[in-house]
Write a structure and sequence with these properties.
The chain is of the alpha+beta class. It has one domain: Immunoglobulin-like (Sandwich). It contains three helices and ten strands. It has a ten-stranded antiparallel sheet. It is globular, with a radius of gyration of 16 Å. 27% of the residues are buried.
Length: 165
């Protein structure tokens, strides 16, 4: 139980908005490296999946997923997913890299920003994220609906993950 409490605290701290104040803040393809603090800054790798609200070229976009990979204060690598409000919570959230088996994520809470889910990464899963082609996060929007699968490209993830600390 203490492990989940520690994970929940780490997730909450990592999902707070953070300014890029260290000089390592940079892009790695579609991945962004965001840092907080000076000197020994804490940096995370972030990828936002955006969709247009209409087919027009000037249509606004909405974020349907923010995938964040971070290192907890205990040194554990963690995958965090910020999902849209309104997902069907009892169905849960799962993630997978390429064709690997699905791994359940723990839904922590829902705020105005969205619903937060977390997963402690095994060394094998972390390496799969570095070398894989695609991370998939799946959830249901309603009890009778189909499972929605959001795909996150991993093409430049390794370069961003090198800066996670």
């Amino acid at each position: 139980m203490a492990r989940y409490r520690t994970l929940a605290v780490a997730v909450l701290a990592l999902l707070l908005p953070r300014p890029a104040t260290c000089d390592e803040a940079a892009r790695a393809g579609e991945w962004q490296v965001e840092c907080r603090g000076e000197g020994n800054a804490k940096c995370v790798a972030v990828h936002d999946v955006l969709v247009k609200t209409a087919d027009q070229p000037d249509a606004p976009t909405n974020r349907i997923l923010r995938a964040t990979i971070a290192k907890s204060d205990q040194g554990q690598m963690v995958l965090l997913a910020l999902l849209p409000l309104g997902i069907f919570l009892p169905a849960g959230v799962v993630s997978t890299v390429d064709e690997a088996p699905q791994t359940p994520m723990t839904v922590q809470r829902c705020t105005q920003a969205g619903c937060e889910a977390a997963q402690a990464l095994t060394p094998e899963t972390f390496q799969a994220l570095r070398k894989g082609k695609q991370l998939k996060v799946a959830f249901k929007a309603d009890p009778n609906g189909q499972t929605l699968v959001v795909e996150v490209p991993l093409k430049h993830a390794a370069a961003a993950l090198d800066k996670v600390k």
